[in-house]
Specification:
The protein contains no helices and seven strands. The chain is an all-beta fold. A hairpin with a 2-residue loop joins strand 1 and strand 2 (15-21).
Length: 103
């Protein structure tokens, strides 16, 4: 299983800025190991974010996203104390969901 995501969500005015650092190897399937064998593709395909259970963000990624990707987005209407949950699913079927409280 992948490392927990580091999620920070801070209110500023009428919106919250959400920052997410995801721990994932993100292999493109084009690199080779020391013996010359191709390293299989392994990357995040879907990312979603929910604010208090309602989806507020969705993205589809491909193999060109870097290792341990960083994501930042804004959510209108978020208040301090709200819960933001970020989930991802990779091309091998692995998933991860982590949650943070908006401050």
């Amino acid at each position: 299983m992948a490392d927990p995501m580091r999620i920070r969500a801070q209110v500023s005015g009428d919106k919250a800025t959400v920052r997410v650092l995801m721990g994932h190897e993100m292999e493109s399937g084009q690199r080779k190991d020391a013996s010359g064998a191709v390293i299989p593709a392994w990357y995040i395909q879907e990312v979603t974010a929910n604010l208090n259970g309602k989806q507020v963000f969705s993205a589809q990624w491909g193999p060109s996203v870097s290792k341990n990707p960083f994501l930042q987005f804004n959510v209108k209407g978020a208040k301090a104390g709200d819960k933001i949950a970020v989930s991802w699913k990779d091309n091998k079927g692995d998933t991860r969901t982590d949650e943070a409280t908006v401050s």
